[in-house]
Amino acid sequence: MDLLVLGSGAGGMTAALTAAVLGLKVLLVEKTDQIGGTSARSAGSVWVPNTRHSPAGADSFERALGYLRGAVGNRLDEGRATAFLHAAPEMVDFLEDNTPVRFRAG
Predict the structure, then answer these.
(1) Domain span at residue 59?
(2) Cα 19 from chain centroid?
(3) CA–CA distance from 98 to each of 22, 65, 72, 79, 84 (Å)?
(4) 5 and 40: one domain?
(5) Per the structure, how many domains does the chain have?
(6) Are residues 40 and 51 both part of a single domain?
(7) Rounded Cα gap, residues 15 and 28, in angstroms
(8) Same domain, 68 and 95
(9) Which residues contact 69 (CB under 8 A, 6 or more apart)?
(10) How far apart are CA 86 and CA 99, in angstroms?
(11) Strand ranges, E, within the chain
(12) CB atoms within 10 A of CB 50
């Protein structure tokens, strides 16, 4: 085993799938009797602005960061939010280009 992933939510499943695509041997462990973590409660929905699925002109980095600032307030970690807003669209591209996973605008 090259990678141990704890938890079967969207983050854990994405980490496990990405590692497997990159050729690593992965063990994913879930402590509950259900798969999906909090993502299962959201019907598998994720918020990823600025992807190839975003309608033209609908998203921008600035609008997404403004949304997070308004939603989270003074608890927002701007460094993490910025990293998410840059990396998440790349994650969508990677998964769609390398796996059967498909996203769609909601």
Answers:
(1) 47-106
(2) 14
(3) 10, 28, 33, 28, 20
(4) yes
(5) 2
(6) no
(7) 9
(8) yes
(9) 76
(10) 21
(11) 3-6, 26-29
(12) 18
Q: Exposed (0-12), middle (13-18) or buried (19+): which is 68, by Cβ within 10 Å?
A: buried
Distance CA 59, CA 81 (A): 15
Residue 51 and residue 86 in contact, taking contact as beta carbons nearer than 8 Å: no
Quote the pLDDT of residue 71. 97
Q: Indicate if 21 and 52 belong to the same structural domain.
A: no
The ranges of the chain with pLDDT < 50 are none
How many angstroms separate the CA atoms of 79 and 82, rounded? 5
Contact between 105 and 53 under an 8 Å Cβ cutoff? The reply is: yes
Contact indicator for 37, 12 with CB cutoff of 8 Å: yes
Which residues 6+ apart lie within 8 Å of 67 measured at CB? 49
Burial (CB < 10 A; 0-12, 13-18, 19+), residue 9, is middle
Shared-domain flag, residues 14 and 37: yes
